[in-house]
Write a structure and sequence with these properties.
alpha+beta; Pseudouridine synthase; 6 helices
């Protein structure tokens, strides 16, 4: 694929510094110099050069060819948004995000690969920017090539990607808005995570949307992205998610998985020079529980 940008006296006037502002790190610059191509004003460039106002920089990226170890699945995906850089998907509950020992043939990654193959895409190594537990539904952001992945990864590391979830939790929370802030960690080979001194820092902010007799609808924003973070934090303060057997959530409210949905995501799209936001509709199992009490 090809990408073009015009230099307009941005900070740093060398090719390398300009490209860094467009998601191409020093390491990627060196790699692309060997198997990609740089041009300034349609002239091939093989080294770092000074840029002048209105110079047009063009980068040709070699295709990210298929990984033969990743199977192609032709099962459908629900696309919320797609362009040449991004794919935003509404993942159903029950679908694993990435291949593993228990499922190597029909995960979200396998289905995305099938989607890209059917489109005739030359880039066949999708980059999952956000991941969800198998039984969590909702928005997943995918970068379709390495430059988009670089930009999104930088935003993720800087906690600049806003993600909101909707959960149904046991009981009524004491305060309508609060932040849960304590470290969580793993004990030996347990799947379950715990509140743990010396664990990874974790911060979860929540707002109560509505309280029902036995449970509450809660909107959640993650400020860190630890494994099982929402599930651990809510269970540790005495309000586990409905259906969450691993964290002792109620199993008799009519939902067969943890009642957690990745509702929306907001991030800066450098290719369009604007913030963008996408939302996944509430799944039928959670919507039924909310409607049942209204």
């Amino acid at each position: 694929m090809e990408l073009k940008w015009r230099y307009q006296n941005q900070t740093g006037n060398t090719l390398k510094s300009f490209l860094k502002q467009h998601g191409i790190s020093h390491r990627m610059f060196l790699a692309l110099r060997n198997d990609g191509e740089f041009k300034v004003n349609d002239q091939p460039i093989t080294k770092n050069v000074a840029l002048r106002t209105n110079d047009v920089v063009q980068v040709t990226l070699p295709p990210e060819t298929s990984d033969p170890a990743v199977a192609t699945s032709n099962q459908p995906i629900e696309v919320i948004y797609e362009d040449s850089n991004w794919l935003v998907i509404n993942k159903p509950a029950g679908l694993t995000s990435v291949p593993g020992p228990s499922n190597r043939h029909d995960t979200l990654v396998n289905r995305i690969k099938g989607h890209l193959v059917n489109q005739g895409s030359s880039d066949l190594r999708p980059h999952l920017i956000t991941r969800l537990d198998r039984f969590t539904s909702g928005v997943v952001l995918v970068a379709k090539h390495r430059i988009a992945n670089s930009f999104a990864s930088q935003q993720s590391m800087n906690h600049a990607i806003d993600k909101h979830y909707l959960a149904l939790v046991s009981g009524q929370l004491a305060t309508p808005h609060d932040t849960i802030n304590f470290p969580i960690g793993k004990v030996a080979d347990e799947v379950r995570r715990h509140r743990m001194t010396g664990g990874q820092s974790a911060r979860t902010e929540y707002w109560v949307v509505k309280s029902f007799p036995k449970y509450s609808e809660v909107r959640i924003q993650l400020h860190t992205g630890r494994t099982h973070q929402i599930r651990v934090h809510l269970s540790e303060i005495g309000h586990p998610l409905l259906g969450d057997q691993l964290y002792a959530g109620p199993l008799d409210e009519g939902i067969k998985r943890q009642a957690l949905h990745a509702l929306d995501i907001k991030f800066y799209d450098p290719f369009r020079s604007q913030f963008v936001e996408y939302q996944a509709p509430l799944p039928t199992d959670m919507a039924a529980l909310i409607n049942r009490e209204e």
